[in-house]
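Reply to dn_fold:

You asked what the input looked like. This is it:
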Amino acid sequence: MDKILEAVMMSPHSKVVKQGMVRRVVESAAQPLDSSQCRAMFHVSTRLFLLGESQFKRDAGREVLEAFARHHQREFEEFFEVRFVLGLLRNGYPPLGRRSPQIFLYLETGLRCLADTPSAPDLFHLLQIEVLRIVCERPGPELCEQLARLLSRCPRCVPSGNLQTVFCQQLIQTIRLFQCQSQQDDDIVTFLERVTKTSGMLQTVWRANVATIFPSLKELFIVISTPGEGGSVPSNALASVVQYVPLELMEGAVRNLTNDKNISDPQMLTAICRMIDWLSWPFTKNTDKWVIALMKGVAVVKKCVILIEVTLAKIEEVFAKLFYPIVREGALSVLSYLLLSFQQSPEAFHLLIPQIPPLVSCLLAEGSDSAQQCLQQLVELIHCLLFRFTGFPDLYQPVLEVIKDFPCPSEERVKQVLSQGAWTAQRADQVSLCNRLAPKSETGKTGLVNLGNTCYMNSVIQALFMASDFRLAVMALKNCDLLPLMGRLQRLFAFLEHSQRPAISPDSFLAASNPAWFNPGSQQDCSEYLKYLLDRLHEEEKKSSQKARGQSESQASDTLIKRMFGERQQERKARIIHVETVGSLERVEPPHSANEGLAGAAPSARASSRAPPQSPDLSASLSVPDLINFFLTPEMLTGDNKYRCQRCSSLQNAEKVVEVTEGPHYLILTLLRFSFSMATMRRRKILDNVSIPLVLKIPVRLPSRGPESVGAREVGSGLGAGPGVAAEPEGSAYVSLTYDLASVVVHSGLSSESGHYYCYARECDGEKPPAGGAGESGSDDPAWATPTQPGGGAEGTQWYLFNDTRVSYSSFEAVSNVTAHFPKDTAYVMLYQLRPTHRVEPGDCCIMATEGLRSTEPLDRELVEAIAKDNTLHLQEQERGVRHRAALSPSAAEPPVWLKDPRRRERRPTPESGTDGDKMMGCWEQVGVPAV
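and this is what came back:
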């Protein structure tokens, strides 16, 4: 019979004739045969099964083998015995190799035929050992697919007992090596299917023996937490493993990992980063749930530095996955967690800002249900983060433009979303330890690290630093041993000037300068901080002069702070003086009226509680000159508030006027934005827009001199008395001082206890004198009426926006329009620099020339060495940072082939229109990516 079968297979007859002959051979299997004839049939059918040149011959060999094995089971047991099976697995069936898929199909057929025979236990025990050995040899996806098929159809081949745990661990080690090398769509789909079937072997074992799950997960963690050898990294195919772990075991598994003392922080960091890479793997479930659960577990044990590193290293990669429908759902889930948990700093959110407009455009163009759902969640998330991290107008404008047509969530909904999943760093300064090593700003300026709601200090420091005369005077100071706070300010200024870092940490200065009543980590009032800082610096220098030089208190009071920011003012009975722009140097409470005023002034004078008789019309457009003139409006002292005359010792009606008698080098004005509402019994913020003049001119009252004084003549032309105004005493005079806007600190938010501060600033070099137009005191066109027009001084110099670590170019137009574009962002503190005059006369002590304030002396040698040492350290940190990010982001260089933009994939040449194109369309539909 065997000779007949061979002759039929080798004959030139048609396939139909051969099929008929094979059918007759199969039917004859029921006839009695001796052992030699049976053995011969087993040999020829095996040869056809394994070595047949066509699928027809291989199928014929399988049919004949199954028929004769069923009817002659004892003889087949003798043929398909342990040594024969072992030979197939170890040596193959020459010329067929031992790892041929056909051999596993043959073994599967033979085992099914002998499943209930006495020899079956020995065969299955052999197969259990051999399957484990094969897995330990790290077979590829094709062979693993055959093994998976064998184990699914012959479950008794699965290793048993303690070997099950070893089998699962070795299978994980095998899957970590899987890589798809082909770029063809069919090959990609085949690779993904093979990986899925391979990981299914783990599910088979885990279902039968739950005790193997935790050792398997431990092995998986070891794989993904170990640095790759020779630059190799574990395959993202490992993502197919965790989908089979029951979710009810996730909490216990995460708890065991995060509390394991043998797992180092770098290992945990690497493991989480690689799990995030798994989000690019399609067809799997629960990957996002495992990533989030592990990060929550790390937060529970307060290892927040790991979470900071992970977020900054991977958030851009996660965001990029939203472009692909095949992995969008899991990526959006992880992205939401990363952003909502990372609320101690805007850095993570700001990394995504440039990528948001392209993504929104892409999702709108896609128009699928997946894209629409993603857009709704993404826009809500963006609104919540814009609410949380206010005060970045230059960054947010493009984002607001692309989402303007989407509904904005209510404030209650925003607060509800922001309250989900936020974790807090162990220490406020931990955030500064993990900032990405970004390149230095193209402006060349250095930022300041936010140490936990310290933007109130950072904005003030940058404003003072950009006050060039003050900065140079501070850096020129010598022997600051007796001036500890001034010495730290000098060091901070020097690092801001010469550091190569994009931002430096002012932790030392914060510790020395923060008022004792400021709660660490809480938002504070920048104006209050500025006042406290200048007072501290002034008192420190005054005490130092008294102690070191034996000066009297009056002599020692002439400090650097007083020379730069000091002022003199007096109250007297006088006429009303109408001026172009006037400046007051005292800080006052807001007017008590229906429309509360916004005027304030320098932070170094005693407050006045007077109530002006009339409020300005706040329904109209407000300006700084309007508010200052309102503040200086004479106050009528009548009724219960009459003035006690010292001459007659009686109460008299009087008029009280505040006048400036000495102009400071730097004029600081504060708009009192925060008031207490009696209706709600809460402090509120006044959001009125106030226009800020680029040039501010104030009249300063001069000491009494002769009637021919220059000041008197100037005042006479433009500041004469009006009708009903009392005449001035003979010899009194005023001079107009011109101030250039140097910096503006903006508060973004709705409360004094929250929000964000940032600073617009420029350097006023003060080299050019007033040059007509707005620069002349007698002009009919006030300086603040056309603030964008250059009028001498430093109006044309470059503006910068200082926002903690971020420093960017800006303009006066941005300063003027910030509240119009962002209603919660309002100017709060303004610093004006006195423009030098070239007409200084003896006795005009109120006019402070800038000569002598600048210094070109070199820095102290110790400070120079400290800066040089830190710059060298920064370069070393940059090198380490590059290597560290490369290790955390192995997939960033080349995305998986199935995530490449299908619109950019090259079409293969097609001999017939539509044939291969339709095939490509079908392949990509299988993996969920729209084809071209």
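The two ends are 57 Å apart (CA to CA).
Hope that clears it up.
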